[in-house]
Amino acid sequence: MERVCAVAILDAQGVVKGWSEGARRLTGRTAEEVVGRPARDLLAEEPPPEALAALTGTAVLRHRDGSPVPLTLRAHAVLGEDGAAGDFMVTGEPPGPAEPTLGEQAFQQASMSMSVFDTQQRYLRLNDVACQVMGVPEDVLIGRDFPETVEEARHSHGFHWHLRQVAETGRPVRYGSFTGAPALNREHAWSIEMWPVRGASGDVVGTALAAFDSSDQYWARERLALLNEAAAAIGTTLDVVRTAEELIGIVVPRFADFAGVDLFDWVLDAEEPPALTGSDIALRRVAHGSGTEGTPEAAIHLGEVDLYPPFSPPARAILEGRVIQSQAGEPAFMRWIAERDARGPAGRRHRVGAHSMMAVPLRARGTTLGVAVAVRIRQSDDYGPDDAVFAEELASRAAVCIDNARRFARERTTALALQHNLLPRGLSGQAAVEVAHRYRPSGSQAGIGGDWFDVIPLSGSRVALVVGDVVGHGIPSSATMGRLCTAVRTLADVDLPPDELLTHLDDLVTHLAGDDTEVAELGATCLYSVYDPVTRRLSLAAAGHPPPAVVLPDGTAQVLGMNAGPPLGVGGLPFEAMEVELPEGALVALYTDGLIEDRDRDIDHATAELCRALTAPAESLDALCDGVLKAVLPEDPSDDVALLLARPRALGADRIATWDVAPDPEHVATSRQAATDQLTEWGLDEAAFVTELVVSELVTNAIRYGAPPIQLRLIRDRTLICEVSDGSSTSPHLRRAHAYDEGGRGLLLVAQLTQRWGSRQTDSGKTIWAEQPLPPV
């Protein structure tokens, strides 16, 4: 049976001002018969006083045919423009339950929140879900304005604004909102659709809405967005601690109110992992964060080691290799919180309300690196299965980044140790130059490069100054650097001119590149120079390397204009040598390209800065090295830097004695006597015996096997050096003399009696030299 509802409008004196079609059908009276008459004339009996006071109750009206019509009436005040109550709207329907239609049942039982409002945004109807959301029964809301039923908040104003727009424009609205609700203890995501309800005439008579709780989909999107954000935000540096801090920055405060990352010590020391046992697990806190300033929830400080018993969620996560979830009320959770309170009593009050936690193992490449812990305190939702899947995926990404940082640190440590062992340390054994050096490894993610330098003592008090750079980074670059460094020392021992030495070094690199693709991919540059303190001349040649800078005694600095030459390994191209004379008090700076070249710097400007820095006053060469690096290098250089400063010294004429020797065996005794007299003048009579033998042997060999011109030279430096030069390029060599041989023992005696000896090629022939230590003063 159809259920009819009546509506009437009464003024404050109870006079009928409006009469609906439903009222006509229930009472048989038309609007013309009723409007303008007192409502009491329509009653068959007086209503009880409490019904009038409550504006609701049951009344008996008299039908037009005289029969009684019992109705359940509700009165609603209608506010005027001044906000005061004027008229009343009275609705009535037959008492007792009525069988709802299928449409009413569908509306009432819908799984989403559905409501109907009049054009003034007053409630007319709510279904069961809407009442659950609002937390009150339908009859409490019917007839009330929407703003009266919700809190004063931004989202409430937005909801009300959309309701008005639909009623005024007659156009439907669809939008999303992330808000709370009066009866819900947490915020929910809502997909809301509002549409106008039109009467028979087509006019808008109300607004209907349906709100779907899309929180699950919302949080799924949020978790996906966090994962995408984590992919860009975690692992920006190859630093273990920084990577852990980036993980905390992602999860706090959106996923957790407190989170911490604890790692094994071997991860931080770049060592290999030990085997896990079932005993207490020692972990070091490397990062934590909180939605509360100062992270008061943390029971341990950053950098401290904590022992986790096997029952604790972090230990279980590590030992079992899976996510461990625990909620308030569970014995394991309460035991864990009690242990945290005992460890850090100062943060006890900040842990009140902690109700859910997750411990997630940090595993990468089959190895457990540590554990991440997330705790919810102010967020009302407990962690669920979807949260565990998200945390596992996030921890997996972070663990790979942490492991990459660990591996990089291990390779960096190995490369640094390799370079430390290969690079020269004291740079002693020569007195031709005063030197200072600096090696600054790059802090970039590319790793340690192959920059190197060396100072090699040569014969005749000369010294070789070398600087080179192997392109690339990491252990392969350092290993190649070690090969080249050793090769240069070997070739320098042969005493080759700079351009010839680079030619041999180029052949070596070409040969290595043919056997080792890594060397071919790396490439190398080198600058080799030789300083002679007797002539004060610097001979140098470069293989694709930046030229040195020279500071003159007047304080001016300039970069030597020289041919850079091809890099090592190109093969088939010549190297060009040059010579410059260095006045007393000059300074030479050799360096690798990392000092002046960078993707964000102009090389000419950096070179000018280098020249200015080299002329700055400094207490020592070491202080000048530091000043140059500080002035020229950017705050975070992208490449390794090697810097070698050398202040040349000159040997005075009083330390050198030279004689021309006629190619006649009779002049051997004359040469021997001249050397003895010179030693007496220098106060080195104790060295006379050995010197006479050396001079006699070397001069005799030059006269017998060499070619004129022949010259004898004695140099008094840190050692006593005897040199004999001749015009032949044939080099002498030691040989084993048989028992009855008359000769062949001279060079053997020289080798036995001197500190070292050798020969070197010159432009006009060769020079045989021998050094012997000076007697103590």
Describe the structure.
The protein is α+β, with helices and mostly antiparallel strands and 777 residues long. Helices cover 33% and strands 29% of the residues. The strands form six sheets. The chain has a six-stranded antiparallel sheet, with helices on both faces. The protein has a five-stranded antiparallel sheet with strand order 2-1-5-4-3. A five-stranded antiparallel sheet has the order 7-6-10-9-8, sandwiched between helices. Helix 8 runs parallel beside helix 14, helix 20 runs antiparallel to helix 21 and helix 21 runs antiparallel to helix 22. The longest helix has 38 residues. The protein is rod-shaped and about 170 Å long. It starts with 5 loop residues before the first strand and ends with a strand. 34% of the residues are buried.
What is the gist of this entry?
It contains 22 helices and 31 strands. The chain is α+β, with helices and mostly antiparallel strands. A 6-stranded antiparallel β-sheet has the order 13-12-11-16-15-14, sandwiched between helices. A 5-stranded antiparallel β-sheet has the order 2-1-5-4-3. A 5-stranded antiparallel β-sheet has the order 7-6-10-9-8, with helices on both faces.
